[in-house]
Design brief:
With 422 residues, this protein is mainly alpha-helical. Helices cover 72% and strands 5% of the residues. Helix 7 runs antiparallel to helix 8, helix 11 packs antiparallel against helix 12 and helix 14 runs antiparallel to helix 15. Bound molecules: zinc ion.
């Protein structure tokens, strides 16, 4: 509408100008060398207008040609086809159909060339060697380098190439510092190599970037000192072993293996007071049969009554725990304190925490107190079907043992053993 109004106004203006020119006649004369052209001013004006229109027309046609509209739409269609192939490829990959994903990805590459998104899809569905080549192309591109490094790092870890994995993880950390998952991997790889001090350094750096929770950090710090204590102990460096075990305990007072090792080392040095302190402090947090054994070793020559008194003192640090009651019941039976023994065991049963050890202690009590072998036998039968004693369990492979190891002896996973029932 606006356009039409504009053309009408233009036409009126042109008519007015033409009328004015006709009303004011005159001549235009062009002379060049021996050539002479003469025309009325109206003819000249009309020719000038026609010339302008012709120029405008030629301009329009040129623009149309230079736009190459049909070619442009062909390119657009090709790009749309390629992007559809990309979407289909990711969908196939989500359904775990790698072969189909690969086919779509290759078609996408034919339409779109080696765009980052095409190569990313290809890297996800091509087999090993081609995947490596593609990832190395992406690694050289600024915007996809971190993605490629992370994928290469995963591959190196999967393939067990820890040396390559460590250098890739460090490169990734240099490029994008402070990423929690990368920092954790650096710690894991250093642990794999047994580079305990380097691992601790990386752990501290990672913790500063909140890559570990406070509890994880404390536990892992303790564990790293504990493994150094064990190595020193095996190598006969007892002083170093003790220092490392004590450092481990300072990092995490609830870390049982360190308490047990430190107490054992102190015991061999005849520092029984210090050993007892460690056992008591740890018993407060986490009573454990290994600690109980060490506690009894503090005074191997004592009488059963003296032992009962000492045990009674220890269990007061954590009186409701099943380990406390078992230890007290065993000492009470040995000292002939029958009511105390029975009371300790009854409390375990009442708390619904009885294990095979509980029933074995009942059997022993029946045998020692009343010489009632039939009752003892019936308790032993109960013991055979009762839940087993707590033990160290590998959360990775299910390995079970009464003794702790920082690396699972079965599946070699580090820090995979937890103390639990069953
Ligand atoms: Zn295991």
């Amino acid at each position: 509408m606006i356009r039409l109004t504009f053309y009408i106004i233009l036409a009126i203006l042109l008519a007015l100008v033409a009328a004015w020119v006709v009303a004011h006649p005159g001549d235009v004369r062009l002379v060049w060398q021996s050539w002479e052209i003469q025309m009325s001013f109206a003819t000249f004006a009309a020719l000038a207008l026609l010339y302008s229109l012709a120029l405008w027309g030629v301009g329009r046609v040129w623009r149309m040609i230079s736009n190459l509209a049909p070619l442009k739409s062909a390119v657009r269609r090709r790009r749309q086809r390629g992007e559809a192939e990309l979407d289909k490829g990711w969908s196939a990959l989500a359904l775990d159909d790698r072969e189909m994903a690969r086919r779509h990805a290759r078609r996408a590459r034919n339409s779109l060339g080696e765009r980052n998104d095409v190569l990313r899809l290809l890297s996800a569905c091509e087999s090993d060697k081609k995947r490596q080549e593609i990832l190395n192309i992406l690694r050289r591109r600024e915007e996809t380098a971190a993605f490629a490094l992370k994928e290469l790092l995963d591959d190196a870890l999967k393939g067990g190439d820890y040396g390559l994995a460590l250098s890739l993880a460090r490169e990734l950390n240099d490029r994008q510092p402070g990423v929690a998952s990368v920092l954790r991997r650096i710690v894991d790889i250093e642990i794999h190599y047994g580079h305990w001090q380097a691992a601790e350094k990386s752990l501290i750096a990672a913790h500063k970037k909140s890559a570990y929770s406070e509890a994880e950090f404390k536990h892992l710090s303790a564990l790293l000192h504990y493994v150094q204590a064990v190595e020193a102990d095996v190598a006969g460096q007892k002083d170093l072993a003790l220092t490392e075990a004590q450092t481990a305990l300072k990092k995490d007072a609830s870390f049982l293996p360190a308490a047990s090792l430190a107490a054992r080392l102190l015991l061999t040095r005849k520092e029984t007071g210090k050993a007892r302190k460690i056992i008591e402090n740890t018993w407060k947090i986490r009573p454990h049969p290994e600690l109980a054994e060490l506690f009894l070793d503090l005074a191997p020559q004592e009488s059963p009554t003296e032992r009962f008194r000492r045990v009674d003192h220890l269990v007061r640090f954590n009186p409701d725990h099943r380990e406390s009651r078992h230890l007290l019941a065993a000492a009470a039976i040995a000292a002939g304190h029958w009511p105390e023994a029975r009371q300790a065991l009854d409390r375990v049963v009442k708390a619904d925490q009885a294990t095979s050890r509980t029933w074995q202690l009942y059997a022993l009590l029946e045998q020692k107190q009343k010489q009632d072998m039939a009752a003892a036998e019936s308790y032993l039968a109960k013991a055979r079907t009762a839940p087993a004693e707590a033990a160290w369990h590998c959360k990775n492979c299910g390995y079970r043992s009464a003794h702790y190891a920082a690396t699972c002896p079965e599946c070699h996973r580090f820090d995979s053993l937890d103390w639990k029932d069953g």
